[in-house]
Amino acid sequence: MSDGDGNGFDPKSASYLDSIEVIEVQRGPNPGGVGGAYRAFGETLRGLKTTMARLIEGPLTIEYPEEKTPVYPRFRGRHKLHKFEDSGLEKCVGCSLCAAACPADCIRVVAAENIPGDRVSAGERYAAVYEINLSRCIFCGYCEIACPFDAITMGHDYEMADYDRGDLIFTKEMLLAEPIERTPLKSEGE
Amino acid sequence: MSAKEVTIVVDGREVSAVEGEMLHDAARKGDVEIPVFCYEPKLGEPVGACRMCLVEIEGIPKLQTSCSTPVRDGMVVHTRTEQVKHAQNAVVEFLLVNHPLDCPVCDKGGECPLQDITMGWGPGKSRVIDEKRHFQKPIELSPLVAIDRERCILCYRCVRFSQEVSEDSQLQLLDRGDRTFVGTFDDRPYVAPFHGNITDICPVGALTSYTYRFRARPWDIEQAGSVCTLCPSQCNVSFTVRDEKVKRVITRDNHDVDDGWLCDRGRYGFEMFEAEERIAGPRLKGGAEVEWDEAIAAAAAGLRAAGGEVAAIVGDASNEEGYLVGRLLREGLGSNDVDSRQSRGFSRAAVVRLAQPDLTIKVREIDDADVILVAGTDPLHSSPILDLRVRKAIRRNGARLVVATERPTALDGGAEAIARYAPGGATHFLSELAAAVGGAENVASPLAESLRGAEKVVVIWGERIAREGDGAATALLDLADACGVAGAEGAGLLEVPDVTNARGLREAGCLPDAGPGLGAELAGGRSTEQIRAGLISGEIKSLLLFGADPLRDFPDTPAWEEALTAADHIVCFSMHENATTAKADVVFPLETHAEKDGTVTHPDGRLQRVRPSASRPGIVQSNIVILSLLAETLDLSTGIDSQPTAFAALTEAVPFYSSITEEKIGGQGIRWQETEAASTIPTPDGGALSSEPTTSATGEGLALGTYRDLWAGPITELNPPLQFLTPQQRLEISPADAARLDLKQGDVVRVGQNGSSVEAHVLIKERMSEGTVFLAEGVQGGNANALLNGGPVWVEIQKLSGVDA
């Protein structure tokens, strides 16, 4: 800070302190006394009214894991790979577009060529390796949007916790398999 | 002779261009992109087949193809008017009439010009409701390339490549109209040494390599630029790497080296990086795998125990590795016995003379040569990309070609004059030729006719002639003199060496009589042949082999067998297990050119950098690090511990490399002749080269010549996709000799000489000269090297079994 070069501003100088206007702060009444007790009781009753009103509605707690939270039909849970129902061939042709679209870079596809007589997919190529690293996935659903064959969709599963990160890499077989337990869907209007 | 500059206006921008340049290229200089399919300057003259590049030129009522319209001064061009857009939309729509929309399955997806152009210039909507044309797909065009004719847009590029670049004329457009398709006569497989290039230039997914089919998508991969070191062409390549493994090799255009092409050897020879025979860690004799420190200690102990009676032969190595091996021998072990040649080579005096900057030509200058003389080599087998370069010079620029070789070459068809000399007769023939150019009348006169008076004479000569000794260098220099090559613009010599980095190794000090920089003459050093003799006689006890496989590649296999058995201790650096590593006491793994970091020197003096692209298998380490650790264990302090320090030491030791830095090498390399330090190359000492009289001995039987086939060697044995190309040993014989010996095509014969023999199938060749037969070197089961002994060889032919007539 410059000291006294003419243009300097010194907050300690007498002329500066004189020029300050002092403003009184307005405060509420002090708590306590009869008025205070009345107000506190009133507020408690108001709170209890809400409590009583909810009490008669019954509990809303969902007893997870015995009970599962229902999800909306468009909920984006764990991915599923699909097969054609008639031919049993995989819909995925291993084009890697899902991997290209994935912002978290969690999909790995290694394609291979179909052998006539032992076809895996309907196209010329198929996914020999299809892995999703679910510990990286952000469930954005871009893979589903990118897929030209509707081979991958976001399922309704959300229970994916595990003890080992390695187990969160889902292989093609795991993604093709039906989940053991279906996640309940929300009903109409819920 | 610089071309005239003209100014044109493209989309309102003023662009200066060179007169005669195509409009498409000129527009690109002004950052205006005009879409193209068929246009590819590498293929030569434009054809204007795809009609994608239509533009509006003021003053011309109809749209013009910008790829085949040369610019004129003051031309005003519009590329984005309604009329042009309409035409572009129509062309894309027409192309998509028959192109299947199977992009998710198609291997080109993501790197497909048709996809890009459809997105950028297409109508966005299809009106086609009719059936598209159908072909059987995919089918084998060759064992390496698949063709999908439904996807083909008939741009003509692959056919033009086959007809005008590689000139094998196997690919044709068959049928007419909308039934046109690309194919070969009678659906025969398209097998040619450069055919992999068609997968690079195909703008759609019609031509795909079986080796890369469905392996990866463009977003799964990384491209890593490097240099192919499988032959002396040293083509610039780009490795496609996925999961740290090489999945594909494609070209990286460098007009000064490869012209944007790549041979199939370089393109498909990458699966051997992961072959079972690959050495993934050091081992001792008998196969015991050991840790690095133990192996280095064992190698050092063996080398030291020889007490200075040590020799080293360097084969496949970078400049730095060669330099370090040289120092290890000379300074660490006190021996001058270092060589980098497979057989007899030129002395230092001859090497220095031939290395003079005014004698060496730039590869690019071959394009503009008046006369090209190919002497003692067949570029197709020894340096394939030069074959395309010579063809280009002849086809496009009217160069004349003369060929003087022992064996018929692939270039004979385009030659104006051809001479065949007897195996081992290069010295004699070249000196005759030099005299004939000077006016004398002799056997070489027909060739001299073409060379005489020509301004830009390019001589492409094979290192093989050096096996005849310094006399060959004298003849070559005389010939250069007679043709007025020295100092002339666009004229010069270009060597085709036997090993990839021959020039770099010589200049880095891997010569028995010269250290780094070809400096002062060193005495007492033994050359490869003398090392072999020394090993047999016991004068040399220990041998260090760096990337060399004498039992396969060097002449006189029986003698080498004896030499390696006699050696007390052999340290062998090798990429793969082979007969030589089986004899070694300590085997170290070598890095491949996808793993190595180092510089190599092109035969025309261009230093290029090989860069690490893929991961090394097992516990393989950088060769430089291992060599420096070995040096340390031998109490030699080199100050080198990594590639940068090795490169710094190399440039310090080789005066004419001194102004080269890794930045200057960059992606395209730099010729040391074009740096300021070029003048520091030693000048030839006045004296004449020692020229021993050429052997004029004659023998009984037929003279044997040998050649190294493009596909002979580990390349076909270790790369499963190339296995179908593995050459058989064939005895090439003239029709007259075959008739005399009662041999028919396909007969099995035994070719013998002095106790050794090789079995071969008879191949009768019209263009062979009488009295000479040829066998291939390096082939499995019957390597012709077994019959060679350093001098002219005459063989006896014994018929084993005949084909049924």
Structure report:
The complex is a heterodimer of chains A (190) and B (805). Chain A is α+β, with helices and mostly antiparallel strands. Among the domains of chain A are: 28-60; 79-176, Alpha-Beta Plaits (2-Layer Sandwich). In chain A, 23% of the residues lie in helices and 13% in strands. In chain A, the strands form 2 sheets. Chain A has a 3-stranded antiparallel sheet with strand order 2-3-5. In chain A, strands 1-4 form a two-stranded antiparallel sheet. In chain B, the strands form 8 sheets. A 6-stranded mixed sheet of chain B has the order 14-24-23-22-15-16, sandwiched between helices. In chain B, strands 28-32-29-31-30-33 form a 6-stranded mixed beta barrel. A 5-stranded mixed sheet of chain B has the order 2-1-5-3-4, sandwiched between helices. In chain B, β1 (5-10) and β2 form a beta hairpin. In chain B, α12 (426-437) runs parallel beside α14 and α16 (528-537) crosses α18 (557-566). The model of chain B has no long low-confidence stretch (mean pLDDT 92). Classes of the chains: A alpha+beta (190), B alpha/beta (805).
Summarize the structure.
Chain A is built from five helices and five strands, in the order H-H-E-H-E-E-H-E-E-H. Chain A has helices at residues 14-19, 33-55, 97-101, 142-146, 172-176; strands at 79-81, 107-113, 125-133, 152-154, 169-170.
